[in-house]
Amino acid sequence: MIVKTTVSALWSAPQSLLDDGLRRVDTLLAGAAPGVEVFFRADDVAAPGEACERMLEIFARHGLPLHLAVTPAWLTPARWDVLHRWAGDSDQWCWHQHGWRHVNHQRAGRKGEFGDERTPEAKRADLARGRARLEAIMGARFSPVFTPPWNRFDAQTARLLHEAGYVAVSRWAGAQGAVPTPEGLPDIPVNVDLHTRRESDPAEGLDALLREIEGGLASRRVGFMLHHQRMNDAAFGFLDRCLAAVAGSGLKPIRLDRPGS
Ligand SMILES: [Zn+2]
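Above: the input record for the complex with zinc ion. Below: its predicted structure, written as tokens.
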């Protein structure tokens, strides 16, 4: 399993800049229209490291739902025992499927585990293998929601997911336009990238992050994407205060496996 641990430049910003960002987050959330939804999705979950424990602790403390996208091939019963012990059985966790092995199968272009360079049989088999493994290890705590590695899959995969009875998928905002999902399989996208930002200038990164939050609010749903392996102390501090702001706002936290709830 290879997970990037690079920390975005934003999270090395002076604390004064991050404090300013948090004030701007407060202002944005305070001005949100009634009924705007919010959710959080953490990718690449499986190995129970210190960052993962810290992330779970923060969400538990704020009582907000977290969607944990688990890569099936990386999960073992021993790893699950630890994750489950840390998380407990609270209703706030939505443990769901993040691909099968998180491996790129595209020979060129953007990475994808479920792209157009594989046969439908190969993709169907990997989806089924992944789900069976998570169900075997997690039992009833598994939710039939699918977050594809690198936030993308092809139209064939969308049909396979629908046929297999998944209740929702979650990609990056805008993916639905390029590869729509069939009726009955909602795509509930993330639109705020906390930890894989590429801006080399922290102030620029912060401005772009706030623009994403603003865009999410305008679309009536803010979906935060987390990568805990790429968080440092500043990123954890920001998340903690951001969750406090969300919990104290009029935003409505949702679960992807309970559409319309
Ligand atoms: Zn991933």
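Notes for the reader.
The chain has a mean pLDDT of 96.
Helices lie at 15-30, 50-62, 77-87, 120-138, 155-163, 175-178, 202-218, 233-247.
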